[in-house]
Write a structure and sequence with these properties.
Number of helices: 13
Oligomer: single chain
Number of domains: 1
Number of strands: 2
Length: 251
């Protein structure tokens, strides 16, 4: 029902303007839903300061990797949950470690098994903590090793550095959702596996949000009103512009 009330379409990538039916990524939509002025979001650093950098980074990664049908279904419920999540560096570091840990334990095995790497998949599944998960990832397939080695390294540093490093760790972990392993074909074509991967992804996003500050509740009707207003406000100048200029500005 919330999705129908909003009449807003989530799309991959960043967008200068929303389209007639929305047409933005999840973070751009979340900015509008929270009552901020619309802005294009390329990375988490384009979000307002009240957005957690690791949370925004992971949401962007999921948004850009998901097929259209899953994005609308699985990510739309997070529309009002992203603003207000920025927290202390130690919380942001904990979120990064959680996202990396669960990506290795819960998502990597699906990718590894699709390449026939059963023993590596089992080792990832059996990881009981962050360090064990990192060791398991380093013994996995080359593509996963490359992605998660960066994620693990940055997540370790994040515990003593800043939330900016935590965002870097999460960016690497997010890639795991839609980057294949060397022999990966089933994950790319099997819709049931694809759905499972992204369903796990949004459960990781949910758990990471719950670790720290939560967004304040906003009435659905107010959110819908804000989003409809921004669509109309941004579309009006484009409707009056010459056809060639409109075409360049369209989403």
């Amino acid at each position: 029902m919330f999705e129908k009330i909003l009449n807003w379409k989530l799309l991959p990538g960043s967008h200068e303007f929303p389209g007639p039916d929305g047409g933005t990524c999840i973070t751009e939509a979340a900015i509008v839903a929270a009552g901020f002025k619309y802005k294009r979001v390329g990375t988490c650093f384009d979000c307002p300061p009240c957005f957690s950098l690791p949370i925004a980074t992971y949401a962007i990664g999921l948004n850009d990797g998901m097929p259209d049908d899953l994005r609308q279904e699985l990510l739309m419920p997070f529309l009002t949950r992203l603003a207000g999540t920025a927290d202390r560096p130690e919380i942001e570091a904990a979120r990064a470690k959680l996202i990396v840990f669960r990506s290795i334990r819960d998502i990597a095995p699906l990718k590894l098994r699709s390449s026939g790497l059963v023993s590596q998949a089992r080792r990832c599944e059996q990881a009981e903590d962050f360090d064990a998960a990192v060791d398991a990832a380093r013994n996995a397939a080359d593509t996963i090793l490359y992605i998660l080695d960066f994620a693990a390294r940055d997540a370790r540093y994040a515990a003593t550095e800043t939330r900016y490093v935590a965002a870097d760790a999460v960016r690497s972990a997010a890639l795991l959702c839609f980057v294949g392993t060397p022999a990966d074909t089933a994950t790319q074509t099997d819709t049931s596996v694809r759905r499972k991967i992204f369903t796990i992804g949004v459960s990781i996003l949910d758990e990471a949000i719950r670790l720290g500050k939560q967004a304040e509740a906003v009435d659905n009707a107010l959110v819908a009103e804000r989003m409809e207003k921004i669509k109309q406000r941004l579309l009006m100048p484009r409707l009056r512009a010459p056809v060639c200029r409109r075409a360049r500005s369209s989403v």
